[in-house]
Fold:
Amino acid sequence: MKIIDISLSLENGMPVYPNNIPLSVSIHQAMPPSATQLSSITIGSHTGTHIDAPGHAIVGSPMLAKVPLETFIGPARVLDFSLITKAGDSVTLDMIKEKNIQKSERVLLKTYNSIRGLDQFYEDYVYLSGDAADYLADVGVVLVGIDALSIKQRGSTDHRPHTSLLSKNIPVIEGLKLTDISEGEYELYCLPLNFIGIDGSPARAILIDRN
Structure:
């Protein structure tokens, strides 16, 4: 069994999606006598590897605490599009259809973003097309993850990569670190922090490879 961390490291200066709240970690000086260090952390709900709840994009839809935890635990399939995408591309409907995705699958999309890396924000990251999002929603997948800080193209008026999935209570994991992950079957564990009434949360995501 091999345990693989696919979440981004949280540290000062890490890239965030433009206009999101940057991560700030500092040492809190008013420490109790029994502690050697106490940190102060400021972070946005969509910083680093994070989960989008339906309520992030759909008014009246469940916030993250209402999404069953079993959604984020179980078999997952990594789909590798890294060699057939380039900067500015989308994962298209035709690409998705070739993978024979079934109902109730958890799918994680590896793209050119994983080759270029997520150590800085690129405006022309690879995203999921609206048509492909519609298809995944209609198939009835459990969740969709991607190796970008957003599943939607920056600045696009096509919001379906969020709305088509989230309107069917299919959460989205963004900011996955899939560089060294091969296409195939894994077990996913990706648990959000237990915030109440919030639209998203940073998460620690791991894959277990039992091969």
